[in-house]
Structure formats: structure tokens, C-alpha cells
Amino acid sequence: MKEEPALSEHDHDHNRRFTLRALLRRVSRFARMAALGALASVAHAQSAADAPAGPSVALYYGANPPVEELAAFDVVVVDPDAHFDPRAHAKAQPAWFAYVSVGEVNPHRAYYSAMPSAWLPGVNEAWASHVIDQTAAEWPAFFVDKVISPLWKKGYRGFFLDTLDSYHLIAKTDAARAAQEAGLVRVIRAIKKRYPKAKLIFNRGFEVLPQIHDLAYMVAFESLYRGWDAGKQRYTEVPQADRDWLLMQAATIRDQYKLPVLSIDYCPPPTTRAQPPPRRGSRKPASSPTSPTADSRPSAWARPGPAMSGRDTRIE
């Protein structure tokens, strides 16, 4: 068989630009429906340079996800409380992932009332949620039984695990943090023990990755360039030092663990007055106007992951 000639650096650059253009075409299609619901963010996951491209991902926390438009993506994360039935769209292109919060719980979640108060030693005042003690002996079984299992029965086969770093709000010593991290590991292992085929996207969780990276489908993090200060209700620029630290974590995930990396940013709509972003999935989704104006329309962003170079492109 004739050997294919090696690609030049020019060819590699061309391929990278082609991949980015293809992504932006897909995101442009998605942007047409941005006004229909509370769009949390859009991002692209890219694995190591010597591995196949990672899946394209959309996070949509509004009611009635527009399935036809979201079909442009490989993975779509939705709020399971938004009355979406993934079984009705099992043949659609995206793999439907359910948002679940591991480190915090909001009182509007159905399982909140069944949680002992001793499991909730802290409060995240910015998001009006309770921080969960990961060291509680019965917490892993409760989480699988009351949170994951009902969603599995509804047809979800993937889960976006949020608030994996919230234990820092209650753990103030090295020993306390180590105990919380051990609890997180037990929770995630309990999910995979019950449902070995479940695909898990970790939102951060950098501290526990050395122990359970083999259980992750992808690793995400928020605010590489811009963030949202829930306490002050404003968008923020991420300091360069914080961005460099995140990129270092991304490089480890990409190069050492060979996992796709998903970068999520919060971006204001084109308006002169500040508007809050769609709320995090651990909170009740913000309702969207039926006839949105320019300053109420959610913004869609396309951003290459940390493992991929390219210019940020805003889709309005």
C-alpha cells in the first residue's frame, strides 16, 4: 500500500482552521435559536492534538429545548427539571446529558426535603443554595438513588456533575478538605458502580482527578476569560494569573489523562445595561421572554477549548 505523505506544518494549520470554521458554522445555526430559551453557554471540547477531535457541546438550561437546532451538537446538557423527555428524541443527533449538582442543593429540587439537615452544614449565599457535606456516610447511596436513578429511568445516559469544588466553602483545613475529597470520590464511584455505562462530565473537580480520571468522559471548567459574580450581579474579567492556572490544569487533563476539555464562559448580551446570565442549572432556570428585545436576548459564544487555538467568535 502506498504510504501517505507526511503533512506539512502548513497542512496542520489549514486543518485546524478548517475544524474551527466547521465548528463556527454549527454554532451559527445554534445562534438562531438563542432567543428561545435560557442558553447557559456554548463551547467546543477538544482532546489532545494526537487524538480525535472532542465532541461539540451545548448547555441549554431553558424550558422546551429546541431539538432541531440542538441537533447540530454531539452533546447537549439540559436541566432535568425543564420537563424534557430524552426518550422522545432518542434518535436525534445529540447525546442528552442531565445537569446534576453534587456539591450543593437548591431548595427547589425534589430531593431536597429528604436530606437531613446535618448533611447541609453551609450556605452559598450568592446562589441561595446549601453546601453538602460529602463525608456523610449515606450521601453516595442517597445521591445515586434519589438523583441519578430517576434520571436514568427517564432516559438520560450522561450527567454533567456540577459544584465539585463547593466543599471549599465549608472545609478550611487540609484534613477537612481531604475528607471532603474522599467523599466526592465515593459519590462518583457509586454512580459508575450502579451505572457503568453512564458518561460523566466533571465540572472542575481538579483535586480528585488523579483518583478518578478514568471515570470521566470529559472535564469542564467555567470562566477562562469571563465570569459571573452572582453576589454582585455582574460580569467579570478573569485575571491573567487565574487563566494561566486554568490552562495549566487543562494541559494536564489533555496530555496526562487524555480527556477532552470543555471551556465555558459567561458573556453579556449586546446592551448598555447589565443583564444577568441564565442561571446555573443548580438553580431554577431563568424564564426567557416570549418576544425578546436586543438587550434581553441570551448570547451564544463559540470558544475553542484550551487544547485548540483560534479566535473567539461572538454569535449574536
Summarize the structure.
This protein is α/β, with parallel strands linked by helices and 316 residues long. It has six helices and 15 strands. Strand 9, helix 5 (209-212) and strand 10 (218-222) form a beta-alpha-beta unit.
How would you describe what is shown here?
The protein is an alpha/beta fold and 316 residues long. The protein is built from six helices and 15 strands. It is globular, with a radius of gyration of 20 Å.
Number of strands: 15
Q: Kindly, what is the distance between the CA atoms of the first and last residues, rounded to a whole number of angstroms?
A: 49 Å
Approximate strand percentage: 15-25%
Order of strands in the sheet with the most strands?
Answer: 1-2-3-4-8-9-10-13
Tertiary shape: globular
CATH architecture identity: Alpha-Beta Barrel
Topology pattern, helix = H, strand = E: HEEHEEEEEHEHEHEEEHEEE
Helix/strand class: alpha/beta
Average of pLDDT = 76
Radius of gyration: 20 Å
| Contiguous helical run count | 6
CATH-wise, what's the superfamily? Aldolase class I
For the sheet with most strands, the description reads: 8 strands, mixed
CATH C-level name: Alpha Beta
Task: Give keywords.
alpha/beta, TIM Barrel, 3-stranded antiparallel β-sheet, 26% helix, globular, disordered N terminus, disordered C terminus
List the helices and strands and how they pair.
Layout: H1 9-31, E1 39-44, E2 56-60, H2 67-70, E3 75-78, E4 95-101, E5 104-105, E6 122-124, E7 129-131, H3 139-153, E8 158-162, H4 174-194, E9 199-203, H5 209-212, E10 218-222, E11 226-229, E12 234-237, H6 240-255, E13 261-264, E14 300-302, E15 313-315
Parallel strand pairs: 2-3, 3-4, 4-8, 8-9, 9-10, 10-13
Antiparallel strand pairs: 1-2, 5-7, 6-7, 11-12, 14-15
Helix pairs in contact: 3-4
